[in-house]
């Protein structure tokens, strides 16, 4: 899937059948607005104006119901659909073209120091209500089924479902 | 259960032991307010003033934390209790006297076109955190247990629990 | 664990690696703010100014996305982390030093009268998305894994995971 040259708005229209126009997406998609504000907050965080960064994301969380730590590293064309209840932790890393539904947590287990949140590779789809906890890696093109709880690595091109998640279709191991 | 002639407020008092008065329900029940605004937005949607419909529901989602697509079809006396995180998709159909708790998704799987969200029949109760995905039908009087994930039809008078959901007490098959 | 003399803010810093300063916690932690407003609302509830109590918690729910019934009984140093989607019911009792993540429900099953919500003992940790339903007791120092559904008592020093939850490491039975 060569999505590199695809525009962000075109990628959303392809991923959400209910999206009708660019104006609708800009004005009425809370997930799009939250990622937009995250990028501003992440800039302030990197130049060490951390309180401004936290303040922006605090109000984004309260108004849009989507919580993204300003220190998280997020790739291109992340689309958070619906978004209420999403929590993305401080040391999370997200690749390109990732699709995250509402109620998803990319969080910690309380057992790790330093890097303690997940790494999500390109083209991953994470279903509604999924909790991915700890410094685990979800490989490229994998899908996590709704309400699954993932506390181990998931290889590329796989599907994980259940509480805790069972990996149902193993693909090639993650190459990097 | 002949609830046809029951008033909406009386039906809520029967379903929520914490509800004390009609004034309290009107002023302080976000689920009641969200359905009220949905009915206004649905009217605008049907007369093709779709942007107004989307705009209303965008702010209902942000303020009340309940997301209902204005095109969804909803019957009488739907009661959404607590409501934070509820997402009801574009082609969802809901019957009469349905009770939905917070965190419930009536959503799509990404695999269907056109009708791609669930159909919920009369008198169904959907527990907190449940995800019902795809154009499946939940039969009359059935109950879905908390955090269950439902991706197949559930017959009438049944209970479904687990991830993915197992139907525990089969009733009569849905007649329509 | 003698946490009796520990300050509330120190206890949060120990429990959340992302917490950097007291000012940050006061201004930017929705879970801390929600419990603060709950304590005010609980005061009004106890002196029978219930509408004021409900009104405060209605707006706390809408703005901070955390719903606590003003009649609930909550001990010292409760820390609600992230918090979006938390619902704490009318007859819930929570001990000291409890840690609750976002998406947690302490709710009812619809089958009980009077005391119909859970009792949570000291030092319990409740993971993201957990639903604890009915007048069950979670014993001291126990942990409930993410997205678990708990509808029975959990003894002290145990871990419960799954839908419905399986208790994985039984400890001593709760002594009271």
Report the sheet-strand fraction of chain A: 15-25%
CATH architecture of chain A: 3 Solenoid
| The named CATH superfamily of chain A | Hexapeptide repeat proteins
The tally of helices of chain A reads 4
Distance between the termini of chain A: 18 Å
Rg of chain A from C-alpha positions?
16 Å
Instruction: Give the helix level of chain A as a range of percent.
Output: 25-40%
Total number of domains of chain A: 1
Give a short synopsis of this structure.
The structure is a homotrimer of 176-residue chains. By secondary structure, chain A is an alpha/beta fold.
Keywords:
homotrimer; 176 residues; alpha/beta; UDP N-Acetylglucosamine Acyltransferase, domain 1; 6-stranded mixed β-sheet; 5-stranded parallel β-sheet; 15 strands; 21% strand; globular
């Amino acid at each position: 899937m060569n999505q590199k040259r695809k525009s962000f708005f075109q990628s959303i229209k392809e991923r959400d059948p209910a999206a009708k126009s660019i104006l609708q997406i800009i004005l009425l998609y809370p997930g799009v607005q939250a990622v937009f504000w995250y990028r501003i907050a992440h800039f302030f965080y990197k130049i060490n104006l951390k309180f401004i960064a936290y303040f922006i994301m605090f109000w984004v969380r309260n108004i849009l119901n989507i919580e993204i730590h300003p220190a998280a590293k997020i790739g291109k064309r992340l689309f958070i659909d619906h978004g209420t209840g999403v929590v993305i932790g401080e040391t999370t890393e997200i690749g390109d073209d990732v699709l995250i539904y509402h109620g998803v947590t990319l969080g910690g287990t309380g057992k790790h120091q330093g890097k303690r949140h997940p790494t999500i590779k390109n083209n991953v789809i994470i279903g509604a209500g999924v909790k991915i906890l700890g410094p685990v890696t979800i490989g490229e093109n994998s899908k996590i089924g709704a309400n699954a709880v993932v506390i181990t690595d998931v290889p590329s091109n796989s599907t994980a479902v259940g509480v805790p998640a069972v990996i149902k279709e193993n693909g090639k191991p993650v190459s990097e």
